[in-house]
Specification:
- The chain has one domain: MFS general substrate transporter like domains (Growth Hormone, Chain: A, Up-down Bundle).
- It is globular and about 60 Å long.
- With about 425 residues, it is mostly helical.
- It is built from 18 helices and no strands.
Length: about 425
């Protein structure tokens, strides 16, 4: 995406500064969120946690993260997404640093809940900013660049966190990562000033029509009537379950099930996220190019989403059948590649349907339901591993849930096209027709 605006924060048609800052914020988000998985082998031993208890520690984050998504979406649409994002980042960074001071299960759970509240601000705020500042022909690349941070964050966090953990312990890792995260706020000040001077609801991008810009914010009841929202919720849940299974348990799986050392586990986990990140950027570029050459939003985005859901499901199921470390590692990398196709297309579908007037709240609702996967996947995995002593059954569950995404995107979600909110308000009895 060439060019940037004068203040580096991004403007309609020239959004690169904004997109880079959002990608950095998401990278920090996932570094901090995933630090618990990196620390798990040592943390479990020091705090004497059972697999079931560790499952709850990994999942409790999402018990705050998921229900706070609609709240953060409402705040993003009403008081400004840049302000909401800044507040959320400050909260989750402090909670990350404080995790290095815990001495028991209770304090660890409390801090994970606080981190969930803070990180809930990101996606509703970020997609609200993108919907208002990025034209449709650059949407997939912008979203892919932002989503790049979601997988390069765990890769970088696992690599750097592993080094810090080996030399200074897991407590130092949390403190260093949390404090470094706060430095992002110093570079976000210009966007904060712009957000205060120009409220987001008064700055619809070229995506919105003049008629849409005059109706104000579509109410929650109208958003909830859209079939596309419910299909997106289901599809997001299915993809998230598989991702959070890997995100939460991959280091322990490689360490205990595959017998890798801490160093080799760190490198293998990093490789997974590098493969995912590379796939995200490539998918974003290909989707925008395909759309510019005449493909509809519906055909382009759904193709990528179905390939991702089917590919991840098959790879996870296939991992239960291989015994060699090399074959397992190859399937792990392929899982990352397949997951990458989801990242630019899923949020692009949301932005296309909702437009700049409703993206914050739509994404808040969709992410709230989608992240029920984060509330359940780590816990279900923990108990399955505790009962069986292996990861086979949990991988079968994750693979089957991922395959459910194929049905969500092909059957439940209607044609991907912008919703005319004015028309929806004028015929409330037919609101579901547009998805």
């Amino acid at each position: 995406m060439p060019g940037h605006d004068a203040d580096g924060a991004g403007a309609p048609g020239r959004p690169i500064g904004l997109v880079v800052m959002l990608s950095l914020a998401l990278m920090i988000n996932y570094i901090d969120r995933g630090s618990i998985a990196t620390a798990a082998p040592l943390l479990v031993a020091e705090l004497a946690l059972t697999p079931g208890e560790m499952g709850w520690v990994l999942a409790v984050f999402y018990w705050a993260y998921a229900p706070m998504q609609p709240v953060m979406g409402w705040f993003a649409d009403r008081i400004g997404p840049a302000i909401v994002l800044a507040g959320g980042l400050a909260l989750w960074s402090v909670a990350t640093a404080a995790t290095g001071l815990v001495f028991g299960l209770a304090s660890l759970v409390v801090l994970r809940l606080l981190m969930g509240v803070g990180e809930a601000a990101f996606y509703p705020s970020a997609l609200s900013l993108l919907a208002r500042n990025v034209p449709p022909t650059q949407r997939a690349r912008a979203t892919a660049t932002m989503q790049f941070g979601a997988v390069i964050g765990p890769a970088l966090g696992t690599l750097v966190g592993g080094v810090i953990m080996q030399t200074h312990g897991w407590r130092a890792m949390f403190v260093v990562m949390g404090l470094l995260s706060l430095t992002w706020l110093a570079f976000w000040r210009r966007r904060l000033r712009a957000d205060r001077l120009q409220p987001a609801t008064h700055r619809p991008s070229e995506v919105a029509t003049v008629a849409q810009s005059r109706i104000g914010d579509p109410p929650y009841w109208l958003i909830l009537r859209q079939r596309a929202l419910w299909g997106g919720m289901l599809g997001t849940f299915c993809s998230n379950y598989a991702f959070y299974f890997v995100f939460s348990w991959l280091p322990l799986y490689l360490f205990t099930e595959r017998g890798l050392s801490i160093t080799t586990m760190t490198l293998a986990t990093t490789a997974f996220y590098v493969a995912d990140a590379t796939s995200i950027l490539l998918a974003g570029y290909l989707l925008d190019t395909w759309i510019k050459r005449g493909a509809s939003f519906d055909r382009a985005y759904k193709t990528a989403l179905v390939l991702s859901a089917g590919g991840v499901g098959v790879c996870l199921l296939g991992s239960t059948l291989v015994t060699g470390v090399v074959a397992a590692f190859a399937l792990l990398l392929l899982t990352g590649v397949m997951d990458g196709f989801n990242s630019p297309s899923n949020p692009s579908v949301t932005q296309t349907f909702a437009g700049p007037l409703a993206t914050g709240r739509w994404m808040g609702l969709q992410n709230a339901v989608g992240n029920v996967a984060g509330m359940t996947a780590p816990v279900v995995t923990g108990y399955l591993v505790q009962q069986s002593g292996h990861y086979t059954s949990s991988m079968v569950v994750a693979g089957c849930v991922a395959l459910g995404g194929v049905i969500a995107w092909l059957v439940v979600v209607p044609e991907v096209r912008p919703i005319d909110w004015r028309a929806e308000l004028d015929r409330p009895g037919r609101g579901a027709r547009h998805g």
